[in-house]
Design a protein that fits this description.
- This protein is an alpha+beta fold.
- It has a domain at 104-285: Glutaredoxin (3-Layer(aba) Sandwich), CATH 3.40.30.
- 43% of the residues lie in helices and 8% in strands.
- It has helices at residues 10-44, 131-149, 166-181, 186-203, 211-220, 225-228, 231-237, 241-253, 279-287, and strands at residues 104-108, 111-112, 121-126, 154-159, 261-264, 267-268.
- A six-stranded mixed sheet has the order 2-1-4-3-5-6, with helices on both faces.
- It starts with 9 loop residues before the first helix and ends in a 19-residue tail after the last helix.
- 38% of the residues are buried.
- Residues 117-270 form the Thioredoxin-like fold domain.
Amino acid sequence: MSTNQPRQTKAERREARRLKAKELREASARRERRNKIARRSFVGAAGASVVGGLGYLFYLGVDAKKKPKDKKTSTKFPAPNEGLATAKANQEGIPKQVLSDASWTYGEGPTLDTVAAAAPILDIYFDYSCSHCAQFEGIHTQEINQLLSGKKITLALHPAKILEQEWTSVVMNAMGVVLDEAPAQSLSFHGAAFEILSQVIQTKSQKNMTVEGLVAAATKVNVPKEVSAKFKAAIDSDKYGKWVNLSNEAFSARDLQSTPTVFFKGEKVDLTKLGTPTSLTELVAAATPTAQPTQQATAQPTPQQG
C-alpha cells in the first residue's frame, strides 16, 4: 500500500535514530536519579543509627579540609549574633520569601516571613538527610509551634546539604514549591518531610523516600493537591538547585561543622541541654526578664483643712 509520505533520506533516518536514543538516555537518567534517592539517602539517614538521648545528636558533617580559610561573614551571610539577614535572596531558583542567607522565618504562628517583635531569634541549621535533625524535630516540633503561637520567638530555619545526599535536594525542591505556592502549610510540610526520615530510621524501609512519599506527606498537612502535583517537575528539573547551593555557601561562610546546630539570641546552644520536649521553652523562659512588682504608695493622704 503506497503512502503520500516521502521516503526519508539516510541522513534523516540517522538523525531520527539519534534523537530517539537521546530521549531514551534522558528518560533512563531521570529514572536512575529517582532510584538514587533511596540508595544514597539511606547511607546518610538510616545508616546513622539514632541512639537514645541528645548526647548523640552531634553529627560532624563537614570535612576539615573543606573548611573555608576566611571565617569572616558578610552582609549577605551575617553571623548568628548579628541577627537575621535583612534582604531577600531575590533570585530565580530561590523561593521568593527566602532571605539572602537561604533561610526563612516564622514569628507569628505558622505565618511565613514574619518576625515576632522584640522576641529572641531561634536559629536552626539542619540537613533534610540528617537523622539527628529528624530526632530533634520529633522532640521539639510541638514545643516550637507553641512558642510561635505565643510570639515568644522568631524561628529562622537554615537548610544545608552538608551530607551530600540526593534526598536533601529532593526535599528542598519540594519545599521550594510549597514556600512559593502554599506558604500557609510550609512549616507543617517541613515537619512532615522529617517525619518521612524518622520512619525510615524506625522501620529500615525506604519505600516512602520518594516523590510519591513527599506528595502523600504534603496531603496529610493540607498542602493543596494542585501544589504537590508540581513536586515531580521541580525535582526532575532541580528547579531550586540555586537555593541548595546558596544554603551551603551560608553554612560554610559561618564556619559551621554539624547539623543540627542551634543558636538562641545569637549564642550557640549545647545540644545535650535540649533533650526534653520542654527544654526550648525553659531556655526562652530563662532569657525573658520577669516583670518587677510595682511599689505601693505608703504616704498617707494630706488631711483637708476645715
